[in-house]
Amino acid sequence: MPLTYPIAEQTLDNGLRVVVSSDRAVPIVAVNLWYDVGSRHEPEGLTGFAHLFEHLMFQGSRNVASGQHFSLLENAGASLNASTFFDRTNYFESLPSGGLDLALWLEADRMGYLLDAVNQENLDNQRDVVKEEKRQSYDNRPYGDSYERLVRLAFPADHPYAHMTIGSMADLDAASVEDVHAFFRKYYGPNNAVLTIVGDVSVEDAFDAAKRYFGHLPAIPQPPAAPDGTIGPLTEVHRDDVVSDVPSDLVTMMFRLPMDGTPELDAAGLALDVLAAGQSGRLNRRLVRDEQIAQSVSGGALPLIGGVSFGTLTGIASDGVDLQKVEDALLEEVEKLAEEGVTEDELATVQAQAERDWLEQLSTCAGRADEISHHALLFGDPNRINTRIDQVRAVTVEQVQAAAAQWIRAAGRVEVAYRRSENAGEQA
Amino acid sequence: MNQVLTTPPAVGAPRPWKFPEATTTTTSSGSPVHVFDRPGQYVATVRVTIAMPLLAEPRELEGVATIMSRTLDEGTELRSANEFAAALERHGAAYGVDVSSDALHVEISVPVSHLAPAVQLLAEAVTRPAFNQADVGRHVTIRLGEINQERANAGYRAREAFSGHLFDPSTRRSRPTAGTPDTIRPLTNAQVADFYRRNIGPERAQMLFAGDATGVDVAGIIDEAFGGWTSTAGTALDTPEPLYLVGNRVVLVDRPGSVQSQLLIGCAGPDRRDPAWGAAAVANHVVGGTITSRVDTVLREEKGYTYGTRTSFAAPRKGGTFSLGGAVRTEVTGAAIGDALRILREARDGLTEQEVQEAKDSLIRTAPLRYEQADSVAQQVGSNIANGVPIDFADTYLTQIAATTAAEASEAYRRYVGTDGLLVVVVGEAKEVRPQLAELDLGELIDVS
């Protein structure tokens, strides 16, 4: 049965799509903007730019001083942030509903007039901050570069998903203020974004406020579409064997998967869940509980819109166990699933887990706003948030096996394996 | 028609807000049940919070409480570990445990439509665990592997060194909650079962539900599952006051290959028994609680040393801490510590009226956001129980904040931060960092490898 969250939509004259979901039961409102620019849009030499804007967008704009975006919203009781992904960038805040106008004004000022405040000084400063983010999130932690290695193996060099959102530090170092301005002018404008407002405001007031603050912003020339990333399943095995100072040996394998928004991707995601989700997943039962060759296993699908998605399976070897054993067991389970499929009970379990995840995601105004923006921007239909569970529930065991047989195979994978160097002693 | 507004629009007054109210009953076996009806929250959290001060662990078996907690669901009197997980997950439920220095929390989150069978399974784990040797042994092995992962994690190493050098060795909190290899490795299932028998029972437990209870007899479902629970464990021991080490000192933890230095700087702090708990939170917000606070304005926005740092006052039941944590690049470690200490010490000279007013607005106005989700209500109430304060302590806290003056916030801060010295922990490439530390006056240097 579909959910019943109300959805109202309007497109302003300048092309900004506005979606409103009123909920007067809570005293707060969530504002969420998705821009149709992610790392997949970045041409060679400009990797990391979409993410760099996630930083510059908080450094002030024409009428907002540096630091003021945060301080004005925090004083109004907001929780705020932004995130960058392969497919898009988003900017969001939740706050007591009396602050709705403030939030919209701040978002509009940086959508329209960010570049008044982007200069050499704050570019240099935020470039340093991004480098610290990369050191913290990738370089200074064990296995921190695994996804960088995997996407490089899983996709051709010029493929939109072959590089991570953090980008190349060399590209960032080479960026001039003019490069940064040009990137902004190309992608950031009302007709390349979705604005979602959820919570304690009437539909009429929300649309009025959206028009008041965003209505005067001019449309930008139609931005270039991201390069087409359509590509089929992997047909070979490519691996990257790393010897490094890691705490335990670890293997992660990656598979290409169908594009998001298709029943095939839902089926492939559920297949990976049967293997890797929860305590009752096949891999946890066999590798961790029964054979005790792994300390932990994990995995799942990462849905993407640009012609292909990907999914991963990871195992961390138990101390003293050869990583090859873990890899062999993972591959055996992969092949078994492709050849024999899943049981009705296994499928019902992962579907029930997906339903709980989805209901939790929608249980806050912020979470609902994010999914509304997501489905409006990438699929053109915010109402999909109400039918998402039905789509997942409609997947059959036959579809799961078919998706697994086509996409999740031992002979079509890439893999990174980390092993401790020979001379690394026992640490425990 | 559309005139561009060049100044920020006014913010309307927030609607009044109070922490959600509970309906409290008691199970047939004597445990309080607090039901928070949250309409529209279709995923409920059911949490069992059991008083379990770590003081109850024998010194040579530290970590037994953690292994016991992690094996509750790994086989019960009725089901194997695999059967239990399959049954619970088939209902769309997720199960988890958390061990703090004062309590054990066991919880499920589950769509309300599957509440009754999931609560039955929760009760089975809590009241009828099997503690088979195979399952306990497996968790001992997993914990030993986890210790290896922790040792490779700069943030974990910093927290471990901070606790180890902030608390006197006679205080349990000077050592890891989940035990060390020498105390974990010898654990047997008999010891785990014995710890359970002595420490877990209905006299020590409270049950929480948060979620949409429309048309559901939540208290009845919980009593049905837990009402028959019997145990010989009496009431829990009282947690003793911790003993702190004082003075300026720096602990340098060598982590070869590091490209950043993980910092943790701090000292003792208040706990919730202190009426200045709210004032301390206000001061923290000004000094280092957000990206616009005094510390990050310099370390991140002005100097670009870090992706971000945060300060916090934190406390279990008795005895709190103040700390500033973050990662900075190796070459500027000394400079960053110097700036951080200068800012922390200068804050003792007083916080401005404007800073304090803005911090109060932010802390008070974000409250409805913090407790929007059913699970966050359950988390808050569970930790209130563990910390020995009333279940609606969030209201007391907000009242304290609203009443805080700039002078009181400054005083609460000054009472703790920098008064008895500051402990500086650095986890990084020691050979690069040591010369940088020499230029600072940090007190005794303690090397850890």
Automatic annotation (TrEMBL), chain A:
GO molecular function terms noted in the UniProt entry: metal ion binding; metallopeptidase activity
Domain Peptidase M16 C-terminal: from-to ranges: 176-353
Keyword line: Hydrolase, Metalloprotease, Protease, Zinc
Gene Ontology terms: biological process: proteolysis
Domain Peptidase M16 N-terminal: start-end pairs: 17-141
Pfam families named among the record's database cross-references: Peptidase_M16 (PF00675), Peptidase_M16_C (PF05193)
InterPro entries the record matches: Metalloenz_LuxS/M16, Pept_M16_N, Peptidase_M16, Peptidase_M16_C
Family: Belongs to the peptidase M16 family.
The protein, known as: Insulinase family protein
Protein's organism: Kribbella capetownensis
TrEMBL record, chain B:
Highest taxon of the lineage: Bacteria
Cleavable signal peptide: none
GO molecular function, one term: metal ion binding
InterPro entries, alphabetized: Metalloenz_LuxS/M16, MPP/UQCRC_Complex, Pept_M16_N, Peptidase_M16_C, PKD_dom
One Pfam family matching this protein: Peptidase_M16
SUPFAM superfamilies linked to this entry: LuxS/MPP-like metallohydrolase (SSF63411)
Domain PKD residues, every copy: 17-49
Residues spanning the membrane: none
PANTHER family in the record: METALLOPROTEASE, PROCESSING PROTEASE
Protein name: Insulinase family protein
Natural source organism: Kribbella capetownensis
Lineage, broadest ranks: Bacteria, Bacillati, Actinomycetota, Actinomycetes, Propionibacteriales
